[in-house]
Design brief:
By secondary structure, the chain is α/β, with parallel strands linked by helices. It has two domains: 125 residues, Leucine Dehydrogenase, chain A, domain 1 (Rossmann fold); 138 residues, NAD(P)-binding Rossmann-like Domain (Rossmann fold, 3-Layer(aba) Sandwich). 35% of the residues lie in helices and 22% in strands. It has nine helices and 14 strands. Strand 1, helix 1 and strand 2 form a beta-alpha-beta unit. The longest helix has 17 residues. The two termini are 35 Å apart.
Protein backbone atom coordinates (compact mmCIF):
# COMPACT_ATOMS: atom_id res chain seq x y z
CA UNK A 1 0.00 0.00 0.00
CA UNK A 2 1.42 3.43 -0.94
CA UNK A 3 2.54 5.64 1.94
CA UNK A 4 -0.30 7.73 3.41
CA UNK A 5 -2.88 5.74 1.40
CA UNK A 6 -6.23 5.43 3.13
CA UNK A 7 -7.18 1.72 3.52
CA UNK A 8 -10.48 0.66 2.01
CA UNK A 9 -12.76 -0.83 4.66
CA UNK A 10 -14.43 -4.15 4.01
CA UNK A 11 -18.14 -4.20 3.42
CA UNK A 12 -19.70 -6.32 6.15
CA UNK A 13 -22.45 -8.93 5.86
CA UNK A 14 -23.47 -11.75 8.15
CA UNK A 15 -26.11 -13.99 9.67
CA UNK A 16 -28.03 -13.74 12.94
CA UNK A 17 -29.35 -16.93 14.52
CA UNK A 18 -28.95 -19.60 17.19
CA UNK A 19 -27.19 -21.94 16.76
CA UNK A 20 -25.06 -21.01 13.75
CA UNK A 21 -21.72 -22.80 14.22
CA UNK A 22 -22.35 -25.73 11.87
CA UNK A 23 -23.81 -23.69 9.00
CA UNK A 24 -21.33 -23.40 6.07
CA UNK A 25 -22.92 -20.21 4.73
CA UNK A 26 -20.04 -17.94 5.77
CA UNK A 27 -17.43 -19.97 3.90
CA UNK A 28 -19.67 -20.04 0.84
CA UNK A 29 -20.26 -16.28 0.77
CA UNK A 30 -16.63 -15.42 1.51
CA UNK A 31 -15.44 -17.65 -1.33
CA UNK A 32 -17.89 -15.95 -3.67
CA UNK A 33 -16.77 -12.48 -2.53
CA UNK A 34 -13.15 -13.46 -3.18
CA UNK A 35 -13.99 -14.96 -6.59
CA UNK A 36 -15.57 -11.72 -7.74
CA UNK A 37 -12.84 -9.53 -6.27
CA UNK A 38 -15.13 -7.93 -3.71
CA UNK A 39 -13.68 -6.49 -0.50
CA UNK A 40 -16.58 -7.96 1.48
CA UNK A 41 -16.76 -10.25 4.53
CA UNK A 42 -19.50 -12.52 5.93
CA UNK A 43 -19.70 -13.28 9.66
CA UNK A 44 -21.96 -15.59 11.67
CA UNK A 45 -23.41 -14.18 14.89
CA UNK A 46 -24.88 -16.47 17.54
CA UNK A 47 -27.62 -14.44 19.24
CA UNK A 48 -28.41 -16.31 22.42
CA UNK A 49 -31.97 -15.04 22.99
CA UNK A 50 -34.78 -13.01 21.45
CA UNK A 51 -34.08 -10.37 24.09
CA UNK A 52 -30.82 -9.46 22.34
CA UNK A 53 -32.21 -9.52 18.79
CA UNK A 54 -33.27 -5.84 18.52
CA UNK A 55 -29.83 -4.67 19.63
CA UNK A 56 -28.15 -7.04 17.16
CA UNK A 57 -30.23 -5.76 14.24
CA UNK A 58 -29.71 -2.10 15.09
CA UNK A 59 -26.06 -2.82 15.74
CA UNK A 60 -25.63 -4.17 12.21
CA UNK A 61 -27.21 -0.98 10.91
CA UNK A 62 -25.02 1.23 13.09
CA UNK A 63 -21.88 -0.62 12.00
CA UNK A 64 -22.67 -0.02 8.32
CA UNK A 65 -23.47 -3.58 7.28
CA UNK A 66 -24.45 -4.04 3.62
CA UNK A 67 -26.98 -6.71 4.59
CA UNK A 68 -27.46 -9.78 6.76
CA UNK A 69 -29.27 -13.10 6.81
CA UNK A 70 -31.68 -14.21 9.54
CA UNK A 71 -31.92 -17.85 10.49
CA UNK A 72 -33.64 -19.94 13.16
CA UNK A 73 -35.19 -19.13 15.53
CA UNK A 74 -35.55 -15.44 14.64
CA UNK A 75 -37.20 -15.30 11.20
CA UNK A 76 -40.54 -14.28 12.72
CA UNK A 77 -39.29 -12.37 15.78
CA UNK A 78 -37.06 -10.16 13.61
CA UNK A 79 -39.95 -8.54 11.74
CA UNK A 80 -41.02 -5.96 14.38
CA UNK A 81 -37.41 -4.71 14.40
CA UNK A 82 -37.32 -3.98 10.65
CA UNK A 83 -38.27 -0.66 9.09
CA UNK A 84 -39.95 -2.22 6.06
CA UNK A 85 -40.73 -5.64 4.57
CA UNK A 86 -41.38 -6.80 1.02
CA UNK A 87 -44.51 -8.54 -0.30
CA UNK A 88 -43.11 -12.02 0.40
CA UNK A 89 -42.51 -11.24 4.07
CA UNK A 90 -45.97 -9.69 4.33
CA UNK A 91 -47.56 -12.82 2.85
CA UNK A 92 -45.45 -15.37 4.72
CA UNK A 93 -44.90 -13.69 8.07
CA UNK A 94 -41.16 -14.44 8.23
CA UNK A 95 -37.94 -12.84 6.95
CA UNK A 96 -34.66 -14.57 6.11
CA UNK A 97 -32.47 -11.73 4.88
CA UNK A 98 -32.14 -7.96 5.03
CA UNK A 99 -31.00 -5.22 2.68
CA UNK A 100 -30.29 -1.62 3.65
CA UNK A 101 -32.07 0.83 1.37
CA UNK A 102 -31.80 4.58 1.91
CA UNK A 103 -30.89 3.98 5.52
CA UNK A 104 -33.89 1.70 6.11
CA UNK A 105 -33.72 -1.95 7.21
CA UNK A 106 -35.78 -3.91 4.66
CA UNK A 107 -36.75 -7.54 5.24
CA UNK A 108 -37.08 -10.15 2.50
CA UNK A 109 -37.84 -13.86 2.28
CA UNK A 110 -36.50 -16.25 -0.35
CA UNK A 111 -36.40 -19.43 1.76
CA UNK A 112 -39.25 -20.94 -0.21
CA UNK A 113 -37.90 -19.85 -3.58
CA UNK A 114 -34.58 -21.57 -2.85
CA UNK A 115 -36.34 -24.77 -1.79
CA UNK A 116 -38.63 -24.81 -4.83
CA UNK A 117 -35.72 -24.32 -7.22
CA UNK A 118 -33.75 -27.11 -5.54
CA UNK A 119 -36.69 -29.53 -5.63
CA UNK A 120 -37.50 -28.74 -9.24
CA UNK A 121 -33.98 -29.76 -10.26
CA UNK A 122 -35.01 -33.29 -9.19
CA UNK A 123 -38.79 -33.50 -9.71
CA UNK A 124 -41.71 -31.23 -10.68
CA UNK A 125 -43.88 -29.87 -7.87
CA UNK A 126 -46.93 -29.01 -9.98
CA UNK A 127 -49.71 -31.54 -9.51
CA UNK A 128 -47.90 -33.36 -6.65
CA UNK A 129 -49.17 -34.24 -3.20
CA UNK A 130 -46.71 -32.82 -0.65
CA UNK A 131 -46.28 -33.40 3.09
CA UNK A 132 -44.15 -31.09 5.23
CA UNK A 133 -42.81 -31.85 8.71
CA UNK A 134 -42.60 -28.67 10.79
CA UNK A 135 -43.86 -25.15 10.14
CA UNK A 136 -41.46 -22.66 11.67
CA UNK A 137 -40.14 -19.51 10.01
CA UNK A 138 -38.50 -21.36 7.13
CA UNK A 139 -41.38 -23.83 6.87
CA UNK A 140 -43.92 -21.04 6.42
CA UNK A 141 -42.02 -19.72 3.41
CA UNK A 142 -41.52 -23.18 1.94
CA UNK A 143 -45.20 -24.06 2.30
CA UNK A 144 -46.34 -20.90 0.53
CA UNK A 145 -43.86 -21.27 -2.33
CA UNK A 146 -44.72 -24.96 -2.78
CA UNK A 147 -48.34 -23.87 -3.09
CA UNK A 148 -47.38 -21.18 -5.58
CA UNK A 149 -45.46 -23.80 -7.57
CA UNK A 150 -48.71 -25.66 -8.19
CA UNK A 151 -48.80 -28.50 -5.67
CA UNK A 152 -52.07 -30.41 -5.83
CA UNK A 153 -52.33 -30.79 -2.04
CA UNK A 154 -50.20 -29.93 0.99
CA UNK A 155 -50.27 -31.61 4.41
CA UNK A 156 -48.68 -29.67 7.28
CA UNK A 157 -47.51 -31.95 10.12
CA UNK A 158 -46.61 -30.26 13.43
CA UNK A 159 -46.53 -30.96 17.14
CA UNK A 160 -48.36 -27.71 17.93
CA UNK A 161 -51.86 -27.40 16.54
CA UNK A 162 -51.90 -23.60 16.62
CA UNK A 163 -48.76 -23.39 14.49
CA UNK A 164 -49.82 -26.04 11.99
CA UNK A 165 -53.36 -24.73 11.53
CA UNK A 166 -52.07 -21.18 11.13
CA UNK A 167 -49.66 -22.17 8.34
CA UNK A 168 -52.24 -24.39 6.63
CA UNK A 169 -54.68 -21.47 6.58
CA UNK A 170 -51.92 -19.14 5.39
CA UNK A 171 -51.15 -21.39 2.40
CA UNK A 172 -54.80 -21.70 1.46
CA UNK A 173 -55.28 -17.93 1.59
CA UNK A 174 -52.08 -17.13 -0.30
CA UNK A 175 -52.23 -19.82 -2.98
CA UNK A 176 -55.65 -21.49 -3.02
CA UNK A 177 -54.01 -24.93 -2.71
CA UNK A 178 -55.92 -27.52 -0.69
CA UNK A 179 -54.11 -27.82 2.65
CA UNK A 180 -54.64 -29.86 5.81
CA UNK A 181 -52.99 -30.13 9.21
CA UNK A 182 -52.01 -33.34 11.01
CA UNK A 183 -50.82 -33.70 14.60
CA UNK A 184 -47.26 -34.99 14.92
CA UNK A 185 -47.53 -37.25 17.94
CA UNK A 186 -44.81 -39.87 18.18
CA UNK A 187 -43.79 -41.72 15.04
CA UNK A 188 -46.00 -40.18 12.35
CA UNK A 189 -47.42 -42.13 9.40
CA UNK A 190 -47.15 -40.03 6.24
CA UNK A 191 -50.47 -39.69 4.36
CA UNK A 192 -51.03 -42.21 1.59
CA UNK A 193 -50.26 -40.87 -1.86
CA UNK A 194 -47.59 -38.40 -0.69
CA UNK A 195 -45.18 -37.78 -3.57
CA UNK A 196 -42.86 -35.24 -1.94
CA UNK A 197 -41.94 -35.38 1.76
CA UNK A 198 -40.11 -32.39 3.24
CA UNK A 199 -38.42 -32.18 6.64
CA UNK A 200 -38.56 -28.50 7.62
CA UNK A 201 -37.38 -29.13 11.20
CA UNK A 202 -33.84 -29.09 12.56
CA UNK A 203 -33.87 -32.74 13.57
CA UNK A 204 -30.82 -34.44 12.11
CA UNK A 205 -28.38 -31.52 12.18
CA UNK A 206 -24.91 -31.75 13.66
CA UNK A 207 -23.92 -32.40 16.34
CA UNK A 208 -26.96 -34.31 17.67
CA UNK A 209 -27.98 -36.04 14.40
CA UNK A 210 -31.40 -36.92 15.85
CA UNK A 211 -33.62 -39.22 13.81
CA UNK A 212 -36.85 -37.76 12.41
CA UNK A 213 -39.68 -39.86 13.93
CA UNK A 214 -41.64 -40.95 10.85
CA UNK A 215 -43.03 -44.36 9.90
CA UNK A 216 -40.87 -45.28 6.92
CA UNK A 217 -43.29 -48.06 6.00
CA UNK A 218 -45.74 -45.31 5.01
CA UNK A 219 -43.27 -43.79 2.51
CA UNK A 220 -42.95 -45.36 -0.93
CA UNK A 221 -39.76 -45.64 -2.99
CA UNK A 222 -41.35 -43.38 -5.64
CA UNK A 223 -41.49 -40.42 -3.23
CA UNK A 224 -38.96 -37.60 -3.34
CA UNK A 225 -37.61 -36.86 0.15
CA UNK A 226 -36.31 -33.39 0.99
CA UNK A 227 -34.35 -32.10 4.02
CA UNK A 228 -33.55 -28.49 4.93
CA UNK A 229 -30.51 -29.42 7.05
CA UNK A 230 -27.26 -28.12 5.60
CA UNK A 231 -24.71 -29.99 7.72
CA UNK A 232 -24.37 -32.87 7.24
CA UNK A 233 -25.48 -32.95 3.61
CA UNK A 234 -26.82 -36.50 3.94
CA UNK A 235 -28.68 -36.47 7.24
CA UNK A 236 -29.96 -39.66 8.89
CA UNK A 237 -33.35 -38.76 7.36
CA UNK A 238 -31.95 -38.65 3.83
CA UNK A 239 -29.77 -41.72 4.37
CA UNK A 240 -32.85 -43.72 5.29
CA UNK A 241 -34.69 -42.36 2.25
CA UNK A 242 -31.80 -43.32 -0.04
CA UNK A 243 -31.88 -46.80 1.47
CA UNK A 244 -35.52 -47.11 0.42
CA UNK A 245 -34.64 -46.05 -3.13
CA UNK A 246 -36.18 -42.57 -2.89
CA UNK A 247 -34.85 -39.60 -4.81
CA UNK A 248 -33.56 -36.97 -2.37
CA UNK A 249 -32.97 -33.22 -2.24
CA UNK A 250 -30.52 -32.01 0.41
CA UNK A 251 -30.42 -28.77 2.33
CA UNK A 252 -27.07 -27.80 0.87
CA UNK A 253 -28.64 -27.51 -2.58
CA UNK A 254 -31.37 -25.31 -1.11
CA UNK A 255 -28.76 -23.14 0.63
CA UNK A 256 -26.87 -22.66 -2.62
CA UNK A 257 -30.01 -21.60 -4.50
CA UNK A 258 -31.17 -19.06 -1.92
CA UNK A 259 -27.65 -17.77 -1.20
CA UNK A 260 -27.11 -16.98 -4.89
CA UNK A 261 -30.26 -14.84 -4.86
CA UNK A 262 -29.16 -13.02 -1.71
CA UNK A 263 -25.67 -12.45 -3.13
CA UNK A 264 -27.21 -10.80 -6.19
CA UNK A 265 -29.52 -8.65 -4.04
CA UNK A 266 -26.56 -7.39 -1.99
CA UNK A 267 -23.93 -6.95 -4.71
CA UNK A 268 -25.86 -6.52 -7.96
CA UNK A 269 -23.81 -9.38 -9.46
CA UNK A 270 -25.58 -12.45 -10.87
CA UNK A 271 -23.23 -15.21 -9.70
CA UNK A 272 -22.08 -18.39 -11.39
CA UNK A 273 -23.65 -21.34 -9.54
CA UNK A 274 -20.43 -23.36 -9.76
CA UNK A 275 -18.68 -20.82 -7.51
CA UNK A 276 -21.19 -21.46 -4.73
CA UNK A 277 -21.27 -25.23 -5.27
CA UNK A 278 -17.47 -25.52 -5.04
CA UNK A 279 -17.33 -23.27 -2.00
CA UNK A 280 -19.89 -25.25 -0.03
CA UNK A 281 -18.26 -28.56 -1.02
CA UNK A 282 -14.96 -27.26 0.35
CA UNK A 283 -16.69 -26.06 3.55
CA UNK A 284 -18.16 -29.52 4.09
CA UNK A 285 -14.88 -31.31 3.29
CA UNK A 286 -16.30 -32.90 0.14
CA UNK A 287 -13.44 -31.88 -2.18
Amino acid sequence: MPKNAIPVLKKMTGMLGHPVAENPIDQMFNAAFEHYGLNWQFWKFDISSTQHLPAAIRGAQALGFSGFCITVPYKIDAIPNLDEVDEDVSAIGAANYVTFENGRIVGHNNDGKGVVKAIQKVTPIAGKRVAMLGAGGAGRAMAVEIGRAGAAHLTIITRRESQGVEVANLVQRATGVSTQWLLWDGCIAIPEGTQILLNATHLGALPQLEPVPVDWNSITATATVVDVITNPRHTPFLQTALGKGCAVVDGVEMLVQLAMQIFEAWTGIKPDESVFQKAVEAALGEQ
